[in-house]
Structure formats: structure tokens, C-alpha cells
Amino acid sequence: MGRRAVVGTVASLAFVAGIAFAVRSASVQGAELLFDSATWLVWLSPFAGVLAAGVTKRKDPVIEGERVLRHDDAAILEHWAHGIGTAVLLVSGIALGFLFVPSLLGAGAPVWAAMNVHFVAVVVFLFGTFYYGANTALALKRFAEHLPTRDAIDYTRRHYGLLLGFKKLTFPPERKYFESEKMAFILALVSTVVIIATGLVKVAAHAIDVPGWLLAVATPAHD
């Protein structure tokens, strides 16, 4: 088993263990929500991501035998930490209810379990996101790779036009990242900033007094 497989397996097992602990702790009589008892982990996670980026040595794409390794270990870690965290946050968030959609879980232990699962996903999501952000700040060329160019509209039209069966179009000379990916990156960047900012306001309310008007703005924006 290669190094990437070992690291991936260990990280996956740790995440599953965290989810299992979150669900189990919700059924313990008198136990607090993890957002109340372990709030400090939410604030520690971004710093851990930045610290990890500071000691990470990035590698450029390489060719090993018949394989082209476009992404190094750091890119894979930040991608999956952010991605899996996002997926679990979406599922648990929808289950808890959002905007005018009521909770799918009713009340009691199921709601507590979902809140605790949300907590674990928040910690993983923040680590992956800040790890990526710090890595990008230390090598701005990587950030530039994700930004759309003046060819974005044309390349995207040709790309998806071909996929939809318009054979008169020609496939564009895409680079490392497709122009459609780059446009989606802008949307993802903006939404991530909003989610983090509003989410941290909601987390802070578990530890300190947060003005009601601020929560009234943060909650629907977060949802």
C-alpha cells in the first residue's frame, strides 16, 4: 500500500470514528452538544490548517512512469477534507432544516446527533479550507491557475456543446483546469467565504452573547 493510500485510510478511519463518537455522545444522558462542550475545536481547526500549510513542501506536477501526477499530496488532502466536510455539512444541515424547510428529524436525540455530526464536519471542513487557503497564499501561482481567463465563455460553450451533441463545435485547448471549472471556482470561493463567516457567528453564540440582529442576518445567510 502506497503512502497516499495509508494516509487516506487513516484519515478516513479518523473521520468515521469522529462521526461515530458524535452520534453516540448524543444519546448519553446529560451530555452537552459538541458545539457547546468542544467549541474550541472549531477555532483551533483553521489555525491547524494554516500551521500545516506552513510546514508543507509542495510539489509541481510530475510524470512517474506511465502516470501523470497533476496534484501533490497536499492538494489531495485539502481537496478531500474540504469536499467530504462540505458533503456531510450539506446532508446534516438539510436534515436539521433550513430557511423555511422544517427539520426532517423531529426533536430529541436525532437532532442532537445531527448537530454533533455537523460539528465534526465543520472541524474537517475548516481544516481543509484553511489548509488550501494558506497553501495558496504561499504560492499565488496556484491561485491564478483557478481563475477564469478571457476564453472562459467560449471554451465552456464549446466544451458543453460537444457533450450535448453539437458536433460542429471543436473541443477547446483546455489547460490544467477547464474554464468551466474556473468559473465554478469563483462561485465556490464566494459561497465558502459567506458560509464560514456566518457559521462562525453561529458557533460564537454557543460561547458568548451575540447580538440578536447579527444572528438574524447570519442564520438565513448561512442557510
Write the layout of secondary structure elements.
Layout: H1 3-25, H2 34-37, H3 39-54, E1 62-64, E2 67-69, H4 73-96, H5 109-138, H6 140-145, H7 152-163, H8 179-204, H9 212-222
Antiparallel strand pairs: 1-2
Mean pLDDT: 85
Based on CA inertia axes, which overall geometry fits? globular
Number of DSSP-assigned strands:
2
Strand and helix order: HHHEEHHHHHH
Question: Terminal Cα separation, in Å?
Answer: 41 Å
Helix content: 55-70%
Biggest sheet strand line-up = 1-2
Unreliable stretches: none
Number of domains in the coordinates? 2
Helix count equals: 9
Summarize the structure.
By secondary structure, this protein is mostly helical. Helices cover 68% and strands 3% of the residues.
What structural keywords apply?
3% strand; 223 residues; transmembrane helix; mainly alpha; single chain; 2 strands; two-stranded antiparallel ribbon
Description:
With 223 residues, this protein is mainly alpha-helical. It has two domains: 1-142, no CATH class; 146-223, no CATH class. The chain has helices at 3-25, 34-37, 39-54, 73-96, 109-138, 140-145, 152-163, 179-204, 212-222; strands spanning 62-64, 67-69. A two-stranded antiparallel ribbon has the order 1-2. The longest helix has 30 residues, at 109-138. The mean pLDDT is 85.
